[in-house]
Amino acid sequence: MKASSALPLLTAGLSLLVSSVSAAVRTYDFNVTWVNANPDGLHERQVVGINGQWPLPVIEVDKGDRIIVNMHNGLPDRNASIHFHGIFQNGSTEMDGPVMVTQCPVAPGGDITYNFTVDQNGTYWYHSHVDSQYPDGYRQALIVHDKTFPFDYDEDIFVTLSDWYHETIESIDPSFLSLYNPSGAEPIPDSFLFNDTQNSKIPVKPNTTYMLRIINIGAFVAQYFYIEGHNMTIVEVDGVYTEPTPADILYVHVAQRYTVLFTTKDTTDTNYAIVTVADSDLLDTIPPNLTLNHTNWLEYDSKAPFNEANITVDTSDDLDAFDDSTLIPYDHQELLPDPDYEITVNVSMNNLLNGINYAFFNNITYTAPKVPTLFTVMSANESVVEDDAIYGDFTHTFVLKHNEVVQLVVNNNDGGSHPFHLHGHTFQVLSRSPEYDDFTPFDPNNHTDFNDPPIRRDVLVAHPNGNFVIRFAANNPGVWLFHCHIEWHLFQGLALVLVEAPVQLQQTLQIPDDHYAVCDKVNVSSKGNAAGNSIDFFDLSGQNKQVPDLPNGFTARGIVALVFSCISAFLGMGAIVWYGLSDLSLSEVRMLEHIADDAGIEHEPIDPDDVSNHGGRDD
Ligand SMILES: *[C@@H]1O[C@H](CO)[C@@H](O)[C@H](O)[C@H]1NC(C)=O
Ligand SMILES: *[C@@H]1O[C@H](CO)[C@@H](O)[C@H](O)[C@H]1NC(C)=O
Ligand SMILES: *[C@@H]1O[C@H](CO)[C@@H](O)[C@H](O)[C@H]1NC(C)=O
Ligand SMILES: *[C@@H]1O[C@H](CO)[C@@H](O)[C@H](O)[C@H]1NC(C)=O
Ligand SMILES: *[C@@H]1O[C@H](CO)[C@@H](O)[C@H](O)[C@H]1NC(C)=O
Ligand SMILES: *[C@@H]1O[C@H](CO)[C@@H](O)[C@H](O)[C@H]1NC(C)=O
Ligand SMILES: *[C@@H]1O[C@H](CO)[C@@H](O)[C@H](O)[C@H]1NC(C)=O
Ligand SMILES: *[C@@H]1O[C@H](CO)[C@@H](O)[C@H](O)[C@H]1NC(C)=O
Ligand SMILES: *[C@@H]1O[C@H](CO)[C@@H](O)[C@H](O)[C@H]1NC(C)=O
Ligand SMILES: *[C@@H]1O[C@H](CO)[C@@H](O)[C@H](O)[C@H]1NC(C)=O
Ligand SMILES: *[C@@H]1O[C@H](CO)[C@@H](O)[C@H](O)[C@H]1NC(C)=O
Ligand SMILES: *[C@@H]1O[C@H](CO)[C@@H](O)[C@H](O)[C@H]1NC(C)=O
Ligand SMILES: [Cu+2]
């Protein structure tokens, strides 16, 4: 059930100016405001609309076109931004959209113009990149049509998949990132949408080959996808054409795109189910009223039967679905040479001193700097701009040299899967391990042969406790985020920053004035190092820091004791009643006091005797 049956209409102009090379300028005026919508028919809620509409307008352009989005933030109570997911922004890194990376947050009432050309083909999307905002509905497809598409088809259609929450992110966030959720359990969606609605019927003609683009614009949950009675042939992933490859079932994680060809039957006596199944492996609990399996329809004839689907996918076994690492790129671009620069990161999730669960690459949880990293690049002297240090200790920034080959090894020391996304590039997928029960990092001295030619894409899933190896050439000067696209995990800090060819960037880039004005409006400095120091770029005093580690010896049990204690305080006892102290060491107990004090929770003083008298371990 869509919010409005009217077609998304750009109230202000969509102008097409044909230039001498036949590339068009496509101008979109986006006034971002709250609107109401009830896409699952269960609950009406506020969503982020554009020009009073939701679902949002689709951006559809041809390769080579210039896109101009004049965004007005008409939300009275939220900052805003737009990231154009998968667009390389070659020569226009300042248009990429992630807040505090390439721009400042656009304040309520503020404006920003995104202006860039699109020199790539395929299936993309756009979404907000500030404050976990896009699950509030601020996301939609961005399609780049290709007049020289290498495969035959008759019709070009797309659908989006997503998870859906009934509450706004701002009301979910505090309880998610809180000491009441010490395991970091992700919020469970309330439902799943197919093209921003449910139970939809896609009219199809018989005897016709469709190019179907599938985009997961969700915040968290991957979905399996298949069409009963129809074979699919994959021809594109994340904007990269592939050798046509048959697939029965796709596994589409958030932010990933697949384009498939399928040919309809030559009879119209029945309709066929399009089946989506949410990957319940990602959910910590499955509420009994959450529907994971959904059926939409290829409608051959509205009067023919719509039979219920026979759901055959076994979500406990990812191997049922197509393994994207085996795809071959259509252009056969070969494996890049051995890397000039190698980055290895271990993924983990853990609690810090405030009892909250964060996500880490090599023990660093991304903590935004005081100056957007791109503005640090642009304001630094050339003699210091290649030094990682000026970007701060908690932004996890790596400086890459122009045109070097970069290899990134991701070792997933976590029992969940993570869809990792690199801005500004597609990357070659050299190898990816299966899921393991125990943490299994990549072993450079003992690995399977690297794929050659390797598939390229911009979002790759790391399997639980497994690893992957990717490579790309640093040929796109810019500031690019690499992060988990599960919006909850990004919020927990699962991100790092690549400052690519900063010297070339300084020489070629001119950030438009209106982007500086965006910073002024929110009182964020647009010059200086990560701490906002523009005199001494190596003086990081005052930089934003991550919360300190829990001390050695502090156990998960300590956190549980804290949480139960806090909940007891919450349930009306006024102050904390300490639970489970007898199981804890004295240092843990002191830490509980410290955390409770930090969180402003009243409590009785802890008597050390309570601890030792009850046989607690002491370190
Ligand atoms: C944006 O939309 C709101 C709500 O319709 C309207 O009040 C406001 O004037 C619009 N702003 C602009 C700049 O179009
Ligand atoms: C917008 O961002 C600025 C700078 O980080 C911050 O001070 C302000 O509180 C934010 N506004 C909202 C509505 O979140
Ligand atoms: C967009 O960028 C192009 C190239 O820099 C420039 O000529 C044009 O004036 C810009 N348009 C807007 C609306 O900013
Ligand atoms: C886009 O498609 C055309 C024609 O198929 C191809 O020549 C071109 O290389 C593609 N561009 C990119 C950036 O992949
Ligand atoms: C499922 O039940 C819970 C608890 O009653 C309720 O909060 C939630 O809205 C329900 N969800 C759906 C999709 O009906
Ligand atoms: C999916 O929804 C968008 C609008 O949100 C629409 O443009 C598109 O045609 C829909 N896809 C299909 C297959 O109906
Ligand atoms: C799908 O492909 C399989 C294997 O190539 C073939 O046996 C089957 O007939 C195809 N089904 C349809 C509906 O085309
Ligand atoms: C499909 O094509 C076949 C052969 O080209 C033709 O015999 C048949 O009538 C067509 N079916 C429909 C429903 O158009
Ligand atoms: C969804 O499909 C799976 C796999 O067949 C099945 O086990 C599960 O019961 C189904 N769930 C719902 C809610 O239909
Ligand atoms: C679904 O299963 C039923 C019973 O096994 C079978 O009769 C029917 O043909 C199946 N439908 C499809 C589309 O496979
Ligand atoms: C992360 O911290 C752990 C525990 O303090 C330490 O053993 C490990 O070496 C650190 N890892 C990295 C990559 O810094
Ligand atoms: C190399 O890796 C394989 C597969 O993971 C493993 O079975 C084997 O024991 C490893 N060999 C060495 C020498 O580590
Ligand atoms: Cu993740």
TrEMBL record:
<dbReference type="GO" id="GO:0010106">
    <property type="term" value="P:cellular response to iron ion starvation"/>
</dbReference>
<dbReference type="InterPro" id="IPR033138">
    <property type="entry name" value="Cu_oxidase_CS"/>
</dbReference>
<feature type="domain" description="Plastocyanin-like">
    <location>
        <begin position="155"/>
        <end position="300"/>
    </location>
</feature>
<dbReference type="GO" id="GO:0033573">
    <property type="term" value="C:high-affinity iron permease complex"/>
</dbReference>
<dbReference type="Pfam" id="PF07732">
    <property type="entry name" value="Cu-oxidase_3"/>
</dbReference>
<keyword id="KW-0410">Iron transport</keyword>
<keyword id="KW-0472">Membrane</keyword>
<dbReference type="GO" id="GO:0005507">
    <property type="term" value="F:copper ion binding"/>
</dbReference>
<keyword id="KW-0560">Oxidoreductase</keyword>
<keyword id="KW-0812">Transmembrane</keyword>
<keyword id="KW-0813">Transport</keyword>
<dbReference type="InterPro" id="IPR001117">
    <property type="entry name" value="Cu-oxidase_2nd"/>
</dbReference>
<keyword id="KW-0325">Glycoprotein</keyword>
<protein>
    <submittedName>
        <fullName>Ferroxidase FET3</fullName>
    </submittedName>
</protein>
<dbReference type="InterPro" id="IPR002355">
    <property type="entry name" value="Cu_oxidase_Cu_BS"/>
</dbReference>
<dbReference type="InterPro" id="IPR011707">
    <property type="entry name" value="Cu-oxidase-like_N"/>
</dbReference>
<keyword id="KW-0186">Copper</keyword>
<keyword id="KW-0406">Ion transport</keyword>
<dbReference type="Pfam" id="PF00394">
    <property type="entry name" value="Cu-oxidase"/>
</dbReference>
<feature type="transmembrane region" description="Helical">
    <location>
        <begin position="559"/>
        <end position="581"/>
    </location>
</feature>
<keyword id="KW-0479">Metal-binding</keyword>
<dbReference type="InterPro" id="IPR008972">
    <property type="entry name" value="Cupredoxin"/>
</dbReference>
<dbReference type="Pfam" id="PF07731">
    <property type="entry name" value="Cu-oxidase_2"/>
</dbReference>
<feature type="domain" description="Plastocyanin-like">
    <location>
        <begin position="31"/>
        <end position="147"/>
    </location>
</feature>
<feature type="signal peptide">
    <location>
        <begin position="1"/>
        <end position="23"/>
    </location>
</feature>
<keyword id="KW-0408">Iron</keyword>
<feature type="domain" description="Plastocyanin-like">
    <location>
        <begin position="366"/>
        <end position="502"/>
    </location>
</feature>
<keyword id="KW-1133">Transmembrane helix</keyword>
<dbReference type="GO" id="GO:0033215">
    <property type="term" value="P:reductive iron assimilation"/>
</dbReference>
<dbReference type="InterPro" id="IPR011706">
    <property type="entry name" value="Cu-oxidase_C"/>
</dbReference>
<dbReference type="GO" id="GO:0004322">
    <property type="term" value="F:ferroxidase activity"/>
</dbReference>
<dbReference type="InterPro" id="IPR044130">
    <property type="entry name" value="CuRO_2_Fet3-like"/>
</dbReference>
<dbReference type="InterPro" id="IPR045087">
    <property type="entry name" value="Cu-oxidase_fam"/>
</dbReference>
<comment type="similarity">
    <text>Belongs to the multicopper oxidase family.</text>
</comment>
<keyword id="KW-0732">Signal</keyword>
